Every structure is written in structure tokens, then in C-alpha cells.
Amino acid sequence: QVQLVESGGGLVQAGGSLRLSCAASGSIFSISAMGWYRQAPGKQRDLVAEITRGGSTNYADSVKGRFTISRDNVKNTVYLQMSSLKPEDTAVYYCNAMIQAGVRYDYWGQGTQVTVSS
What we know:
Layout: E1 2-7, E2 10-13, E3 18-26, E4 33-39, E5 46-52, E6 57-59, E7 67-72, E8 77-82, E9 91-101, E10 103-108, E11 112-117
């Protein structure tokens, strides 16, 4: 089991920045990758960025060059630094921890609202 606690969402004007944090606890040594997903009203939950155990990163095309995912292995925390925010970035952002052990297990945080005003 993995527990995820997110923080850092809020309201920001277009062009501004926010940093999301996700602290993991539990079976953290089993985690294969961690990432951030987002879900806007009426839309599906989509991957924003992920970072693997080996440190490889992957970003959605819509956020490349604006968002950066990073991690602090001492604090067991993953961050999403969001810059040059756009109104279309408005969504609930969910932290994800994925364990690949023959089958895939996904664990989710409670979600944090990010609202970008124009």
C-alpha cells in the first residue's frame, strides 16, 4: 500500500506559477514511477508528467517547456513546478504512484484544485 498526500494547489493568474507537492508513504520502495495527472470538468483524467524510479521523465505535449517534475528521495516527495500557466491548465491535479509487479497497481492522492484565471 502507498499513501499519497498532495499540497500546493490554488488560484493563480495566467502567466503565473505554482508548485505542487506529493508526499508518499508506505511501500515506497515498490514504486516504479510517480506522476501527476489532471482532470478538468467533463473530461477524462490525463497524464501531465511522470518520473520513473530511474529518473526518466515524460511530459504531456501541452505542458512541455512549462512544467517540470522532480523528486526528493530523502523526503519521499515528488514536485510539479508549473510555470507560464494558462486557463486551460485549470483542473484537479492528482498525484499517482504506480507499482509494476506483473500487474500494474495505481495509487492516487486526494487531488488538489488548480485554477488559472485569464
